[in-house]
Structure formats: structure tokens, C-alpha cells
Write a structure and sequence with these properties.
By secondary structure, the chain is α+β, with helices and mostly antiparallel strands. It has one domain: Umud Fragment, subunit A, CATH 2.10.109. It has 4 helices and 9 strands; from the N terminus they run H-E-E-H-E-E-E-E-E-H-E-E-H. The strands form 2 sheets. It has a 7-stranded antiparallel sheet. Strands 5-6 form a two-stranded antiparallel ribbon. A hairpin with a 7-residue loop joins strand 3 and strand 4. The longest helix is centred in the N-terminal third of the chain and has 29 residues.
């Protein structure tokens, strides 16, 4: 009887470890659920919204301008931040505010991205800490899950429309 109970317990432990490994690999390489906090991405993502962040784009180098990404904080490696990609390596970024008389620009170095929050007045982003290494990107937000009334893909922000307008005018 003891052997049978021990055998069933070990079998259960084996299944638990297997499913744990599968779950770990899924969250590490496919995607994860993220609870966003803070006002920096309002109105696109509001405090305590739950989003799904897929990781395949990061591994395949498919991050594009306008994507919302989850990134390791450059100040605290235990914290993640959620921001929008404004510039990729080699892009020229205007770093001055809309009311500044003298416009200042910077170039995004190789292997880096420029990130900004949609709520420019209440966001600590690349305007404060500079370009972010591509290696700090954890994933691309592709779906808003909670609250249910806003379930679906992310809406286009005013920033994304500005990015489109700038790239359209660059091609003229």
C-alpha cells in the first residue's frame, strides 16, 4: 500500500513539474499577461488594465514605430515599464517640447529604441533617460484583456498618428 501511494505521489509530482516547465516556456518565449499601472500611457492603457504581451516580435526583431512594448526599467531591473516606440536605431528624434523655441534633436544609436508614454505631461521616458537598449524589451503589447468593455487590440494613439504623418511627409 505504501508503494502504491508513493508511486501515485511521485507520478503527480512528475506531471506537476512537466506542466510547470511548459508554463514557464510559454510565458518566457510566447507571451505573458501584464497588469499595467501608472498614468504614462493614458488614454491608451489606463491604470490597472491587463494586457497580453507577446515575445515573438522581440526575438524576431519585428518591433516597429508605434508599437507599445513592455521593457525592463533602466533604473530598476526588478520593475517593468510600458511605453510606445517612437524611434528605432538611426532615427532622428526631436527632444524639445512643443513650446520650445529652439528645437533640439538626437539620433537613436544602433541597438537602441526611443520610448515615450502617450501621456507626455505625466511620463518618465526616453526624454528623461535617453535611448533604451533593444535587449531590455520584454515584449510587444498586442491585446488589451481587461476591463472587458475595452477588450481587443490597442487603439491608435495621437502619437502613432503623428509618427505616420512624419513618415508620410519624409517619403514625399
Amino acid at each position: 500500500m505504501f508503494r502504491r501511494v508513493l508511486g501515485k505521489a511521485l507520478g503527480l509530482l512528475g506531471y506537476t513539474i512537466q506542466y510547470g516547465c511548459i508554463a514557464h516556456c510559454a510565458f518566457e518565449y510566447i507571451g505573458e499577461f501584464v497588469v499595467c499601472s501608472g498614468p504614462s500611457m493614458e488614454p491608451t492603457i489606463v491604470n490597472h488594465d491587463i494586457v497580453f504581451s507577446e515575445r515573438m516580435s522581440r526575438h524576431l526583431c519585428k518591433i516597429q514605430k508605434g508599437d507599445v512594448v513592455i521593457v525592463k526599467s533602466p533604473f530598476d531591473p526588478h520593475m517593468n515599464i510600458c511605453k510606445r516606440v517612437i524611434g528605432l536605431e538611426g532615427d532622428k528624434i526631436c527632444t524639445s517640447g512643443p513650446l520650445d523655441l529652439l528645437k533640439t534633436h538626437t539620433y537613436v544609436p544602433m541597438g537602441h529604441v526611443w520610448l515615450e508614454g502617450d501621456n507626455h505631461r505625466n511620463s518618465t521616458d526616453s526624454r528623461n533617460y535617453g535611448p533604451i537598449p533593444y535587449a531590455l524589451i520584454r515584449g510587444r503589447v498586442c491585446l488589451k484583456l481587461w476591463p472587458l468593455h475595452s477588450f481587443g487590440t490597442l487603439s491608435e494613439s495621437p502619437t502613432k498618428r503623428i509618427i505616420k504623418a512624419q513618415s508620410d511627409s519624409d517619403s514625399d
